[in-house]
Amino acid sequence: MRSDSLKEAAVPGAVASSSPPPLVRVRGIAKSFSGNAVLHSVDLDLRAGEVVGLLGENGAGKSTLMHILSGGLQPDAGTLEMEGAPVRFGSVADGIEAGVSFVHQELSVVGALSVAENLHLGRMSRSRAGLVDFGLMEEASRALLERVGAGHIEPRREAATLRAGEQQLVEIAKAAARKPRLLILDEPTSSLTPHEVGGFFSYVREARAAGVAIIFITHRLEEAMALCDRVVVLRNGAIVSERRPAETSRQQLITDMTGKPAIYEHRPRTINGDTIALSMKGVSDGRLLAGIDLDVRKGEIFGLFGLVGAGRTELLDLIHGVHRPTAGTISLFGEGLCLRDPSEAVRAGIALVPEGRKTAGILPQHSVRDNAAISSLRRFSRGLFSDRGGDPRRMASYRQSLGIRMATDTQAISTLSGGNQQKVIFARALMAEPRLLLLDEPTHGVDVGAKADLYDIVTREAEKGLTVVIASSEVPEILALCDRVAILSKGRLAGILDRAAMTEDTILTMAFKEH
Amino acid sequence: MQTGVAYIRSLGRYREASVLAMLAAVALYLSFASDYFLEPRNLLNVGRQASVVAIVALGQALVIIARGIDLSVGSVIGLSAVVAAVLMRDTGSETIGLMAGLLTGLACGLVNGVLYTRFRINPFIATLGTLSIARGIALLMTGGIPVPFGGLAEFVGAGRIFDIPVSFLLMIVLAIVVHVFASRTVMGREIYAIGDNPKAARLAGVNLRAIRLVVFGLCGLLAGLGGLILAGNLASADPNLGMGYELDVIAAVILGGTALSGGRGSILGVVIGALLMALLNNAFVLLGISAYWQVVTKGLVIIFAVGLDGLQRRGDDD
Asked: Is A171 within the bounds of a domain?
């Protein structure tokens, strides 16, 4: 039965009259945002009782496609059918009505309510007096949580006190309660512990046996291979491959996703000398981070890996002077750092490419040139006056060396593609001629070509002697770039691995370490 | 409908040009509607009226470009004038009086800046508070009775050089200085950056607190200067001086193309905006329309200017 579905998926439209139509049939779906085509003519069949893995890089169009399937967005072209009948979802409510449940990556539990109340939002049971029947609700909640492998969560607990992973399970339970026919799970396992992943997998298998069609979006290839009947890869808004896990490999899937077999290949490089560039001793921030000890050598590319909420960004914030450590010392090339503000960090030779290009990176109304110049205005000033005249020359040199594609450097940065915007932010950081470069999720939302370029740039700068600390949630990125990686878990250092010991397995195992 | 909106948006792209066009249109109309309008005396009077609004608007523009707002400028005008006049009367020294007036303005601005940067009070609320406090102190110091005021300030406020009002010349000089500051200095460029995206600017190494403090300080200082000129013009420091001035000043800034959402605006535009406000005031006088209509129109002008800003921003979001 499974192999039939695969064949049919490969030959759209070839439906034998004897077999029933698929639960969901997607034909020719296209969607653009302000002129940028995000999806071009996507065809996809989903059968009852099938788990389909959906893989793709950030920005490949996965979320857009899922939003269209669940009614959150309207396609520009194409059709949706359920069991052979055309459907049109005008809103998320229409989707839910038709049996489509979408568990988002961003958590949406209401923190101030109990777990049970969250699970029954909008459909709370009432007693005969017309009041909320908490007893009944908690009973039902317990059963639901049990089903998704979260029996340990007490329904009466306030949702805000749950870990991210536990909140994720509550979301899944909420979706399960709606008895969906199509269940869309967007990176459901990104903050689950291995034990929770096990429980979650059994729920998915149980739902499959009950005839639910499931779309499972993940960045973890191992999970996709273990759980899915079929793996679909989306790249630049089009489906580029449909494979069965038993007949493919990790490497093949990465090539499908990136279109470039070599993008995540390690770029070999030599590190000269072993001067300590950055040293942290017993550093705490009084909130999350505690007792961080690490040394980074000059010219090293040092990774920081951790799950959501592990403290990657917080650690970079301490080095960059955004917050001040409450304990411990940080030193740069042997000099103690006591920064009160990022402006002092930049003066001390520390530049940051922050996480969240839109919110924390670009100056959207400024030109490309002004965006690049902002960190080094003081370096190139004459007294109070800014060296505006020298800006075009400096910009031209970085445009060349970073391969920034634009019409002119006076166009607003917001008119560039994400990848080019990020290169401008890199130019900004490099123009300040830092001794230490901090990168926080530097390739998020960047297309594959730009991603490969950014990896080359980081490697090249490190080769020239720049010390780089890169925080990333993408294991392949860490493996591609880093000489060593520090793994954070709940604000503590779970361990440091050198190149020889780094594998996806060792890194993830450490990241889940409890302490 | 669609094209109408697109047309207004395209106007918004060249706000300085569109304000200049409005200025020209009002002037053209008045030159036909009133025989008196083109008289040099009247035109110079318009220039004088525009100059105080423009001087205070220069500081306000910097604050708004940095994504802040200062509602207290009207009260700071009154307090600075009163402090200067009282000290001049009590010490007999003109220098002490004028210096004290300017320092009062600077101090008010710095208080606003500290409330914003150190105590993290939204500038709208912080300056609403100082608006009331500064006015109250001015009333307390004088018991509500105007204090005579003269000397150099009277010359700046009411005097002429070659028939041109001194205050107008001073405004032109200050506008050039502030224009150079905003566009050519490191700090000026950083002001635009923090207005565009404060978080990004901070992480890129711009000292957010220091710059916010400086722009609020400058705004207070210029409001203080405005107070001295205004009181000098009347030869009297009324504790109610400058009441409601924040409206004219903010209207001039926004009319001149400065985005209320920060990061965008030009000093030239602000000066044109102030001239337009003064011209509208003049129009009501010349045409003999009730002053109450003037109050209504001022409100309409502000809503129109901010509406332009909103339309343009929606275009940016798409």
From this structure: no
| Residues 6+ away with beta carbon under 8 Å from A423 | A402, A403, A404, A450, A453, A454, A457
Q: Confirm whether A271 is domain-assigned.
A: no
- Which residues of B fall within a CB distance of 8 Å from A384? 185-187
Chain-chain contact of B185 with A354 (C-beta, under 8 angstroms) = no
Same-domain check for residues A417 and A448: no
Cβ contact (<8 Å) for A363 and B199?
no
Same-domain pairing of A425 and A443: no
Considering only CA atoms, which of A346, A285, A357 is closest in space to residue A315?
Answer: A285
Chain B (249-278) residues lying within 8 Å, Cβ to Cβ, of chain A: 259, 263-264
B317 touches A at CB < 8 Å: no
Encoded tokens for A457: 């740039």
Question: Which residues, other chains included, contact B180 with Cβ-Cβ below 8 Å and sequence gap of 6+?
Answer: none
Q: Does B318 touch chain A (CB under 8 A)?
A: yes
- Which backbone phi and psi does A265 adopt, to 5 degrees? -75, 140
Q: Are residues A414 and A442 in the same domain?
A: no
**Do residues A235 and A115 both lie within one domain?**
no
A140-143 own/partner pairs: CB under 8 Å, 24+ apart? A140/A116, A140/A177, A141/A115, A141/A116, A141/A173
Domain that holds residue A240: 2-108+180-258
- Block means of pLDDT (10 residues each) for chain A, length 515 residues? 41 51 90 82 91 85 89 90 88 87 82 86 72 81 86 86 84 87 87 81 91 88 88 90 88 82 80 87 91 93 88 93 93 91 94 90 92 92 87 91 87 86 94 95 81 91 94 89 92 91 87 71
Q: Which of A361, A363, A432 sits opposite B205 (nearest CB)?
A: A432
For B:50-69, CB contacts with A below 8 A are none
Same domain, A63 and A192: yes
Is pLDDT of B63 > 90? yes
End residue of a domain, out of A227, A258, A289: A258
Domain CATH for A6: 3.40.50.300
Based on the structure, what is the number of domains in chain A? 4
Output the DSSP codes for A185-243. EESTTTT--HHHHHHHHHHHHHHHHTT-EEEEE-S-HHHHHHH-SEEEEEETTEEEEEE
Asked which of A120-124, A342-346, B2-6, B13-17 is least confident by mean pLDDT, the reply is B2-6
CB within 8 Å: B185 and A385? yes
Which of A322, A346, A366 comes nearest B193 by C-beta? A366
- Domains of chain B, start order: 11-317 (1.10.3470)
Residue A387 and residue A318 share a domain? no
Q: ipTM of this model?
A: 0.84
Q: Which residue numbers of A have CB closer than 8 Å to B's CBs? A: 34, 320, 322, 341-343, 345-347, 351-352, 354, 359-366, 370, 373-375, 377-378, 381, 384-386, 388, 414, 428, 432
Verify that A114 and A150 share a domain, yes or no: yes
Residues A339 and A286 in one domain: yes
